[in-house]
Write a structure and sequence with these properties.
Blueprint lengths: L23 H13 L1 E2 L1 H8 L3 H13 L3 E12 L3 E14 L14 H9 L22 E5 L1 H14 L3 E6 L12 H10 L3 E7 L8 H10 L3 E5 L7 E3 L3 E9 L2 E9 L1 H17 L1 E2 L12 H11 L4 H8 L3 H14 L5 H10 L4
Parallel strand pairs: 5-6, 6-7
Antiparallel strand pairs: 1-3, 2-3, 4-10, 5-8, 7-11, 8-9, 9-10
Helix pairs in contact: 1-3, 2-3, 5-6, 10-11
Length: 353
């Protein structure tokens, strides 16, 4: 079976696109977009290591076949003390649609399918669950909240109610800040109350300007954090009894979410989290390495591990690409590596990546 994070050729078990006559390149772009749920041309080109022009050409083909939709949305920016907000800049974002849409109607997914999505995150078809769960199907234990304000309020309520542990997968789409609650101070309050928080961040967190400051402060307050290049899903489990996960997004922000209160669903998603936690990379060095690298150097390593270019790192840090290159050369020398590849291997050996 092809791993969910792979962008290579699909396995036969999930090769739904072959019967549609798409080229392997078209299918590769489509599968990556399904895994990411949504993305821009730049983000897809970076993930697939293709040129932007080639990705755009294949997206145009997928658009013509009705396999993706396209809309313009704000590019998010992190505002200290508030959280993630729109920057004012806009770019096209593409969202994958199920192959079934080319035959007629969109798939209607029941809440039970979301359980299967959490348990079987590596199954391609379960990534189509962001479509249309009807609010009328909500029960006393499972509810659908719609609108940015309602999603914000639901997350805030779960954070306020947390007593023991929060398990959090952090990636796009984000919850809008200050609508109506400020979630960053709420999470800091959770940590200050002694609630154990474990978070797995996707690599795109480093691509939101200023988000590193939030992660640094959360770590100072006691958050345990790990990093993966790509997360196939996002959700939060609170006290092993409540789960919230996105159903639909508008650009980089969540506009509908499922909230479940009950041990059965929470147990399934807890198992998914633990599996991902085992495979993720710790974001703090082992004790014997802490004396060697300072926090800015660790941040630089983590950004490099997510395939960010020197120019992209420079934009994030407010430095020139030449300055970033010089800092990387110094870091390479500090780790005793002969090449950039060797620096990554040495950092991994030390438990830094």
């Amino acid at each position: 079976m092809t791993r969910s994070g792979s962008t290579g050729q699909p396995g036969h078990a999930n090769n739904r696109l072959g019967v549609l006559g798409l080229s392997p390149g078209d299918e590769r772009v489509y599968r990556q977009l399904i895994l990411a749920r949504e993305g821009s041309i730049r983000a897809l080109a970076r993930s697939l290591r293709l040129s932007a022009s080639e990705v755009e050409q294949r997206l145009q083909r997928l658009l013509a076949l009705g396999l993706v939709t396209r809309s313009k949305s704000d590019v998010p920016v992190y505002v200290p003390g508030h959280g993630v907000e729109p920057s004012g800049a806009r770019e096209f974002h593409y969202v994958a649609r199920s192959p079934a849409t080319t035959l007629g109607s969109l798939l209607k997914v029941k809440a039970t399918n979301l359980i299967n999505a959490g348990v079987a995150v590596e199954d391609l078809s379960t990534l189509y669950v962001s479509s249309r769960i009807e609010p009328s199907r909500a029960s006393a234990h499972v509810t659908v909240v719609e609108g940015a304000d309602a999603v914000n309020e639901a997350v805030y309520t779960l954070l306020a109610d947390a007593q023991e542990e929060i398990l959090n997968l952090d990636r796009q789409p984000f919850v809008r800040a200050q609508r109506p609650r400020a979630l960053q101070p709420a999470m800091f309050d959770v940590l200050a109350r002694g609630v154990q928080v474990r978070t797995i961040y996707a690599g795109d967190a480093y691509r939101v300007a200023g988000y590193n400051e939030y992660m640094t402060e959360a770590a100072r307050l006691g958050e345990q954090a790990r990093l993966v290049t790509h997360l196939p899903i996002r959700f939060m489990v609170v006290d092993g009894a409540a789960v919230i996960l996105p159903l639909a997004a508008e650009g980089p922000f969540i506009r509908a979410a499922l909230v479940s209160r009950g041990n059965s669903l929470a147990e399934d998603f807890t198992q998914v989290f633990e599996d991902l936690w085992f495979r993720a990379t710790p974001m703090s060095a082992r004790d014997e390495d802490l004396v060697e690298l300072n926090e800015p150097e660790l941040v630089l390593l983590r950004m490099l591990s997510t395939d960010m270019t020197e120019a992209a790192i420079g934009r994030h840090l407010g430095a020139s690409a030449r300055t970033v290159g010089r800092r990387l050369a110094q870091l390479q020398h500090k780790l005793g590596a002969q090449t950039r590849f060797g620096m990554g291997a040495e950092a991994a050996r030390r438990g830094l990546l």
